[in-house]
Amino acid sequence: MNIMKNKIPPSENRTLVFAKFLESKGFRQTPERRAILSEIYTFPSYFSLNALGERLAKKKYTVSRGTLYNTMTLLLECGLVKRYLVGGRVRYEKTENTDFRNTEIKQTMKKVDVILGLQWGDEGKGKIVDVLAPNYDIVARFQGGPNAGHTLEFDGKKYVLHTIPSGIFHDHITNIIGNGVLIDAQIFMKEIAMIRANGYDPSKNLKLSQKAHLILPSHRVMDAALEHIKGSAKIGSTLKGIGPTYTDKTARHGLRLGDSLEADFKIRYEALKASHIRQFESLGFDWKKHKIEDLSFAEYEKKWFEGLKEMKKFDIISSEYFINQALDKGKNVLAEGAQGTLLDVDFGSYPFVTSSNTTTAGVCTGLGVAPNRIGRVYGVFKAYCTRVGSGPFPTELDDEVGEELRRIGREFGATTGRPRRCGWLDLPALNYAIMINGVTDLVVTKIDVMNDFSEIKLAETYTINAKKTAEYSGGNLDEIQPNYSSFAGWNQSLADVDTYEKLPKNAQHYLNFVEKNTRTKISIISTGPNRLETFFN
User: Fold this and answer.
1) Which residue out of 150, 162, 170, 213 is catalytically annotated?
2) Are 393 and 119 in contact (CB under 8 A)?
3) pTM of model > 0.85
4) Is there a catalytic annotation at residue 122?
5) Dihedrals phi, psi of 24, to nearest 5 degrees
6) Would you call 166 helix, strand, or coil by DSSP?
7) 498-528: pLDDT as tens digits
């Protein structure tokens, strides 16, 4: 690794750099932040957040966990600190330059790291992207559309993103909606309005792929029409037009964002809409009476075109070139997935799946990067399981325990508001997802939801047709009998837990069992919805 070595900046220089950075963000320098910065430069090499906290405590500095985490995030953003994975553990290091981000160096990360879900979606990916984002220059969505609902909580506020990447609230990060993503102009602009209303300017750090396909209003009607005719066999679509848009993409009928810049776009739009209307009528679906988000077709279409006009004010790029050139320059890129592995159109519980590849392979086609440019793969899973909509769910709890998980975990869809089905963790399914994605690091979320459970279970294997197997099956529920292992609960709050060692012994036992039986390190543990309720293992 060739790095330009510069003299470590004198303390007055780095203090001044940090103070100016804080001022630019609207923050003030405090004695606690000054102490943290000073202590960092006493470490000879890599250090952990825990070690830094212990040093500060020995010197009688009273620094809360939240202040320590927030300050490290700010130091990462301004370039005075770097973060690495060393032996599977997160370690920090002071930088050698007060203008780190503008120094031409050969970075250690030149591949696309990936964050994706290992279950049926709703694992908490958005929060984890938000937590890891300060260490990246680019965050890019690679598939799905507004059927996603990524929830972020920080500074006392809650944000739900559907199409826009979860790094949007970090000013220094370029956020990209990749070619594999579907965009509904109306929903997109509602998200933009929400972000602006909270004091952020997404036009400064959001770019859109010219190859991203557009969800037309008639795609949303088509989604409702197809779901309607299925009756009791419906798959539980979000009715966002995802399936019909991907269908048109594959059939080479679709319209892309770049097409909207062409002179004949309106002609092509009307031709595709007319084709859809003919299909509605052949299905016997009264599309004229159908409401899209409580609006008539004409009303929604009007807002859609208004949204498209605003979308075209954003930077529309050849995202595949932008990302590959950024990698060549040593930039750090994080790919953000939507939905989950078990909803993958090829490897999920078909046909109860989404219409895209939600796995690591989808990064290559959804962003235009080669397989050999995939780096670390962070697989996010809940400490239990949830699923929205129809389809197989081997460990589902249709009883008071499942209801308690739903109540405590606030398990209602961020996009649809539908109650999620809840059940115990499914190890065959988890191992399947790890295998398909090549997961290097596990991220467990919502372990705190089970704080008050006296007994916790997970499915270690299945019995199918009288035979025991550890292989995942999304087939006939009547043929699958989960074989459970039981664990004693920990019956205490995790509110003050910020290291693995501070976890209750029973919680450690549960997670150790998962690590041992997946042969994969749990590198990040989330103990609540806020970005501060996260620690590295």
Assistant:
1) 150
2) no
3) no
4) yes
5) -65, -25
6) coil
7) 899 999 999 999 999 999 999 999 999 999 9
